[in-house]
Each structure stands twice: as C-alpha cells, then as structure tokens.
Amino acid sequence: MPARLSRRSVTATALGALLCGALLHGPQATPAAAATAGPTVTVPPAGSHGFPFLAAAEDLGSYGYTESEYFLSGTATSYVKSGLWTSDGRWNVRASGTAAYKSRLLVRRPTDPAKFNGTVVVEWLNVSGQIDLSPDYWFERDELLRQGYAWVGVSAQAVGVNGGLGEIKGLKGWDPARYGSLVHPGDAFAYDIFSQAGRALRAPNGPDPLGGLPVRTLLADGESQSAGFMTTYVNAVQPVSQVYDGFMVHSNSAVAAPITGVLADTLLMPNPSRIRTDLTVPTFVVLTETDVPGAAVARQPDTASVVHWELAGTAHGDQWAYDLGQPTVEKSAGQAAPSADCAAGSAPFNDGPGHWAMNVALRHLAGWARGGPRPPSGQPLSTVLRDPATGLATGGVRLPDVTVPTRTLTGSRDTTDSGVFCGLYGARDPWNGDADAWDRHDDGDPSDPAFPPTAEPVLSRLYPTHADYVGKVRTAAQRSVDAGYLLPEDATAIVAAAQDSGVGG
Fold it and tell me: Least C-beta-crowded within 10 Å: which of 29, 101, 256, 273?
C-alpha cells in the first residue's frame, strides 16, 4: 500500500508544535538568593469553585480513593548546558539561577493505607491545551486504581499556573481566590520544581500529601509535550537530583525539550535526543503509532536501563482517554475545554489498545524500578508498510485488537477542515462493507486511503462463527500475556468483550 498522502503528515508536524507550544509563555525570572530549606507544603484555600482544577469527575470513593490538593513552595534552580550535548543523552548541566516559586500538587491515593502498594506515580501535567491535563492518568487509570498506586499531578510548567493562549488564564485566572498566591518563574525552573515535588512526597515539610503512606518507589511520568521535558529530565537532571526511581516517557518526539525552557533553544537540542544508558534507574519509552514518524530517528537498542515499545493500532490520544478524561476537563474548564475539533463526517477516534499497553507498561516499570526483571523488548513499527487488506500498520507491539482485527485502527487521520488537535486522535474504520461516509478510498478513509479501491474485509469470512472469533481472541490474548505485553486481568476483559460482541458468522 502506498505511503500516506501529504495531508496526513500534518500529524507529525502538529505533534512537534504541541510538544514545544507551551514554551511560548512564562517569563523567565531574575535570579534570586538560594534557599537552604526544602520545599514547604501547605493546604490551599477553598476558593470560589470549592474544588481543585482537574478534580476527578468520576467517583473516586467508589474505588477506595480520595483526592486532595496541596501547594508546594520554595526556591527553584534553573540549569544550563555544561559541555557538549550529543545524541547519546549524556548531558551535563550547571546551576544557572534561582527563583521563588509556588505551585501545586493534585493527589489521588488509596483511602485505606493497607491498599497502598508503595508506588507513587508523579505525572508532569501536560499543558499543550494551555491548561493542566493528565493524559497518562487517563491511559493508566485502571491499573493505578486496581493495584493501589498513589498518583500525583504536578503543575510543573508556567502555562498551567500563569496561563497562555487559552481562554482560561492558568490556575490563577481560573480561581484567583484559590490560586492567586501561586508564583511560577518560568519553564527554566520547571525541572527543579518537579524534583522538589518528588522530594516533598518522600519527606514533606508541612502536611503530608500522601497522608502518611510510606513511599517505596517514586516513578516520574510524562506524556506528549511532558514526555519531551521528561526526556531532558532523565538525561540532564536526574543525575544531579537523584529523586526518582524510574521514568515513563510516553509519546515523546525525536528532539527533547530545551533545558532553558526557551522555545527557540529547541533548535539547539541534539537531534535526535536519545535516552542515556548509564543511569542506575530504568526508563521505559512508549510510542503510539501517531508518534513513530516523528520519533523513529531517535530509536536506540534496548539496554539494561532503557526499553522502547512502539504500539501498533494506537494513537497519541484516543477514544479511551477522551471518554475518561473529558468529563473531568469539562468539570473544571466547561466550554473552554480543549477540543479535538475534527471535521463533521470524518472517521471517529482510534479506540485501540493504547490503555491496555500502558497498564502493563506501568506494572513492568514499577517492578523494574524495585529491582525486578526488565520488560520485554518490542519490535519496530512501520506506519508506511501497512497490510493492504486491513490498513493496519506492520510490526510493533501487537495486541488482540490488531492480531484479531474487526476494524482498521490508525494513528494518523485526514485533518482537512479540522483543528490541530484532531490529528492526535488517530482513527478507526469499522468493517461494514464500506458503508460509512468516509469510505471513499481517499485520504479520509482509514482502511483504504489510496486508489485503486480495496474493499474492507468481511467479518463473516474472517470469523465464520462467533465461537471461532472468541477462540481466536482468547488465543491472541494469552499469547500477549505470555510475551509480557498484556496483563492477565486485561486479557480477561478483552475476551469478555469478544464474548459479548456479535462478531462472527
């Protein structure tokens, strides 16, 4: 099948822009005197809304969880390059300046201490939409809640606190009564603010954000733009700070975020920016099908401390993350919530296996960080060499959605007449005899984006009976479990969904 047409290449371009976009705002501070004390933790006022920005819309209590928010304040350090930075990621830094800051932590933790598994996932909140968002909480939510993790979202970047191009002018603009005292001196200080958040969780100076839960393992997590910052954090800051026990880098691009927090300095970053391999703590890089075209040049062999997965049939954002996250975003942002803004009549979002993969990736990383086995390696993914019969990408980590397919799942989509975020959600195309409005055998048709026309697969021929389909799903799920790419409880859910479907015959 031919390579995707040029309109689809806009996805990689848009992703690169979004990874850097929030660097456009947030003035750099004048260096201040260094502080010797650690960060101070305080409890915020109730404010005018009576709840934190990004408070969960779902009933966390029904899962045995509680949500709370804390302010974190102190003096943060900025860094600059020391010596030559190359693509191997072994980057040295020196302190450049200091500035006062005050930001916030959003905490979700088990109510019953006995259910806490000892691991805290600390997510660098994403601000591509010009407000704080928690994409990896949504991707990993099932694993987080069922296994007793604590999750902490950190408002690390200036846009989240001070505001940017969006209608909501940051936390301070959303609720001045609650957040008016916050101070963010600029993204050059974001790395150390994130370090201080981790330190405060281990040894709080003030109220304990974790309510006394004993921390065994502290994992740092960032998705999309935040993954670009996480790449730089791993390579340049972790060797200095020694705060985190492991890193999840989800959907980064080939070039890491600048250490200075200045957009123009992205041009001075090594291209590609690979993960350094000499750390004593592990880094797990997970890419979706959307990310691979813009990140493939940064591929590197897996080592004892770095593992890299590329997920077939997945998207940078998808239906799962949207459905789970959008009610929470709208609870806080209302009509100002970021929108995918896809053209009317275009294919629906990808609803593939991204969340299943992130569940198992998180469990792997947590065990690995505690001295357990390294996760299995994954094969490289090709988004150009696609199966001509199904439209599915070849290679990569392949879960039952793509090994026993019922629809085309892609990480790219036609973005004609759509907003910039639309391209990040990929697409799905049910196999129903080309009956959908987008089944035109052109760039808007996920299963067949180019002439000559190829008919969609016929499900009744692929799976002559329902039992045949369910049996193939069960076999594929077990193979994925055995290979280390799927959790047993998620395999059970996948087989149950197949049993409840009408596929086959």
Answer: 29
